[in-house]
Write a structure and sequence with these properties.
Layout lengths: L1 H4 L6 H12 L3 E7 L2 E6 H17 L7 E5 L4 H12 L3 E4 L6 H11 L1 E6 L2 H9 L9 E4 L14 E3 H14 L3 H7 L6 E6 L9 E5 H14 L7 E3 L7 H14 L2 E4 L6 H8 L3 E4 L1 H17 L2 H23 L5 H21 L7 E4 L6 H10 L3 E5 L9 E2 L12 E2 L4 E4 L4 E5 L6 E2 L3 H7 L5 E9 L5 E6 L4 E2 L5 E2 L1 H9 L4 E7 L6 E7 L1 H10 L7 H5 L2 H16 L8 E6 L19 H7 L1 H7 L6 E9 L5 E12 L4
Parallel strand pairs: 1-11, 3-4, 3-5, 4-8, 5-6, 6-7, 10-11, 12-13, 13-14, 25-26
Antiparallel strand pairs: 1-2, 8-9, 9-19, 14-15, 15-16, 17-18, 18-20, 20-21, 22-23, 24-25, 26-28, 27-28
Helix pairs in contact: 2-3, 2-10, 3-4, 3-7, 9-10, 13-14, 13-15
Amino acid sequence: MEERRRYLDFTIPQLLRHRAAEYQDRVALREKDLGVWRSYSWKEYYRMVRRSGLGLAAIGMGSGEKLAILSDNIPEALFLAIGAQAIGAVSTAVYQSSLPEELGAILHYLDATVVFCSDQEQVDKLVEVRQALPRVKRVIYEDPRGMREYGGDPWFLPVEELYRQGDTLDEERPGRFDEMLDQGHPDQVCHLCLTSGTTGLPKGAMLTHRNYINMGLQLTEVDPLAESDEYLSFLPFAWIGEQMNSFGVALVSGVTVNFPESVETAMADLREIGPHFMFGAPRIYEAIRAGIWLKIDEAYLLNRMFYTFFMGIGEKAAAYRMRGRPMPLSLRMLAWLGQQVIFRPLVNQIGFLRLRRAYTGGAALGPELFTFYQALGVNLKQIYGQTEIVGIAYMHRDGDVRPDTVGKPLPGTECRISESGEILSRSLSVTPGYYMLPEKTAELLEGGWLHSGDAGYIDEHGHLVVIDRLSDVMHNSRGEMFSPMFLENRLKFSPYIKEAVVFGDGRDSIAALINIDPVVVGKWAEDRGISYSTYMDLSARPEVARLVGEEVSRINEAAEKEHFRIRRFAVLYKLLDMDDGELTKTGKIRRKFVAEKYHDLYLALYDESIKEKRVEARFNYQDGQTATVDTVLRFHTLGEK
């Protein structure tokens, strides 16, 4: 570890140069294109970063300028990001799902002068708001398909031409790249990472080379990775969860980063790669769990009986394994048998057979889902942090996994709880602040501690327990406190419930708006001969309402306290969606926005005389089109005959 601590004195591009000299022809990156995997060695990786950095310098990009990346997960995104950092510029990334107006506002705030796009779809968004982007000097694109109509416009530059200009500059000034690279300092800001934007326009957290490298060092000190390990890059590059692996962990540990052919094929490519470690938002694991439920539901009766029996055994074994305690011999033998006969083939089908470490973060994951994966033999662990501390500051350790906590601080991370119950952190990975937002920075780093905005406490085992956002913690009319996020996660453990929004602040009881899972519930309906045409139609079926009511009742029965129980619910006629502003780009509920948008439904939930309500449903699509549909929403009261 002492040898690796010297990496803290490197910048990200300098560490890549070190890796290239050390590993030479060992595979660093692998990309699937047209069904064929193409590999880049560490030496080639560094060469492409060199070409990119010099190319950016050749087109006039200077130190401190901003390169924005609007791209799928492809090697070129890393080539250009690290290339920009090598010449003293700053990289940043924007979610591909951003709408043109949103994109224009973000790029204006970030002061981007060069934008890299993966394809025509993203370029077209920039063209639509071009007049609002006077600072953007060049738009670089990777995929030339569909770009012919923009030919001759100097605003656009194919990435191959950028490389060519970089090669020319390298020939003219052979030592120029190393000069710029050597001028870098680990405490320089290298990337602006957008926050989730739960309360409005995302803020750009300024992150330094040392921030990223320290996080990679501390994570791999707790969970060492082998240089031969594989990682699949499928999370949006704009999310800190992807950056912490592709910038920090990969360069610190030397693992191979794999890029899927597309977002649509990511899960199939995951099965092909069989990664050794994986990081995903809770939605990923919830979706995989839903797929497993479907497989079991379609299996023969005997197989379902075996699955149910061995899942019970697996859960008992998981309780021992998560606590690092030895199992009784009989349980160990039955658990081994269940692994070989049921779970190993199932885990192999989803690509998790070689998975030694699986992490989830970005939002809370219910304890039941943890136990589910641990019962399958998947070493799923919670991590906790925020963009402003490079995504991770707390995590579970092997043999010390407690599903209702987020683990202990990483080495070198300090934690304390403020008088108001807020989680405060301090480490070398903490951001210097927000870009161009000094007042927000002062609030964030008040007193020399990173303020999370989350309520929590340290339990008797030294684990951090996150309750909810301080602003989201609720109290009923009797002053009893409850966490809506906790209850929402309990609801989402049901395979039939995809999303839930819980209300009850200042009220006598708790109510919820619920999204059903269209795949699982659709299959359930088909098996019972229940016809439907659209999600709206399916969600309105009385049989579906009874199904959801049974799930909510089951969760109520397990509630530890009476005031945790849900009294009323409605099945929402549409899925909560990022395009409609109801979810952040990382899939978190924008709770205040949802409460305001569905205020009439919220009021109806608390008027038990209202059994149904006619509503006008408005849908927004990515191409800017909208549609309006009238429907009837029904409200259900638990315990009513």
